[in-house]
Write a structure and sequence with these properties.
- The complex is a heterodimer of chains A (250) and B (343).
- By secondary structure, chain A is α/β, with parallel strands linked by helices.
- In chain A, α5 packs parallel to α6.
- Chain A is globular and about 50 Å long.
- Helix content of chain B is 65%, strand content 10%.
- Chain B is flat and about 95 Å long.
- Classes of the chains: A alpha/beta (250), B mainly alpha (343).
Amino acid sequence: MVEARGVYKSYAGVEVLKGVNLTVVRGEVTCLIGPSGSGKSTLLRCINHLEKHDAGELRVDGHLVGYEARDGKLYELNDKQICAERSQIGMVFQRFNLFQHLTVLDNITIGQVKVKGVSPEVANVKARELLARVGLDGKEKHYPSQLSGGQQQRVAIARALAMEPKLMLFDEPTSALDPELVGEVLDVMKDLARSGMTMIVVTHEMNFAREVANTVYFLDGGVIEESGDPRVVLTEPSSERLKSFLSKVL
Amino acid sequence: MTTNGDDAVKVVPVRHAGQWVGAGFALIFIAMLVHTLFSKVPTGSVICHTVNGVRSCRPEVAWRFSWNVVGQYFTTSPVLQGLVRTLELTVLSMVIGIVLGVVIAVMRLSTNRLLSSTAWSYTWFFRGTPVFVQLFFWLYIALLYPTFSIGLPFFHFIPFTHIAFWHFDANSVFTPFSAAVVALGLNEAAYMSEIARSGLIAVDEGQIEAATSLGMTHGQTLRLVVLPQAMRVIIPPTGNEVISMLKTSSLASAIGVTELIGTATNIYSANYKIMPLLIVASLWYLIVTTILSVGQFYLERHFSKGALRTPPPTPIQRLTRDARGILMKFRTRRGVPANSVAS
């Protein structure tokens, strides 16, 4: 589903990603772990082209991200094509980023109606289904500011799912939550993983990674230090860096 | 602590001596103001009566502020026509100012250097020159460009290729009124662009990222996500700008627009009733400002949706709430429990 080969990215001369290789299989859950500043979020943002990678090959579902290969050349995609690509990738942010001026229901329908051209009636039905799925039926008319952090993040997941994405990206979805609210969001994500959604999750929740992930990638200093089955990687790490990282977070 | 019954603890509020002294001075000042506003002064002539063959004379007196003259002119048709002109000027120039201001603000925030520096220069120029000069500039624009034509740029330098789609005479288009609308509107756009820009940059970047990740285009993100949220920041200073424009539009009288002040000037230059006519105009400005302030309150309330957990009460809601509070106090004093009223 996602294939990264030697992906480089730098901001103002500082290299954040230094040749990342990563493979995400359809229907599997991949967790990216690592210290802050290691490039986890940047990698995630490159996948849906919120950031443009500088070098290397990044493919989603076989297509190059942001480019089209034709006649041995790479053509940069125009805005419309990039938007179409993005609409098939759902993203959930650390700070929820719900549209503050819209009700919960409108937050979930706006993408369907304005980007996919779904009729408002159909979008409403789907939004209510998704709200029930994340355990928030009855909150349709609320504004985001009237909800707790955990509820907001579940609405954000519903908003992303409403676009019927083929891939879901989670950027530290529980880091901004009070400890007692983390569980409700992780439960929704576990449920999503069981339903066969392909997910890439940047997280500090090691228990979630161990329990749900098929593959764990440990990033440090812009490169993948170690990867593999979470039960192996997280219990018997081979690299010294991962050992010291785990001793700090566990 | 209970509010009813004998076991309630009596609370003695702290006394503020300074406030009492200040309030006393304010009261004296208000009394003086009211007194002088409605005082009468001798006009210099004498009124004589003959009652039962006895002739008595006393000096004639009149309102110091000539309220009777104010009343005479307040709703005359020239004044009302002037008021309508003032409102037209305000509305039209604010529409130009707001639309152009938002466009310039978006340009200013563009990543394209040429666009952003063009926007910056616009604001620099129109904010840096007096609006009074700009009014005359547009009125006399025909001195620079006697005719305007719309065609392809620079083609008139090449012989025989100049094709104009539209052609007009500057003198016939830039009447005092239209020159005033253009001048005030373009000037206002410079100020509005700064207000709009502050609103746009106040919207959290995460909102833009979320919209982008849903697959929205730049235009959709701006229209559906950023602008509606920027409105909350933009509305209060824009309300100020409307009220300010209402009064700035009086400068148009200098280029011959017969708006409210222009009308007042025309009338008092004929009959020398200067003060009463200035008061007539000022009262109308006060009335319109009051109406605009009420409108601004409801507009702000509308755009605070989602930003505040509970929107501020409208004056009517506040009134009913206060009335209910007083009623409740009254009933509890008579021994009825407070909660029987609230339910």
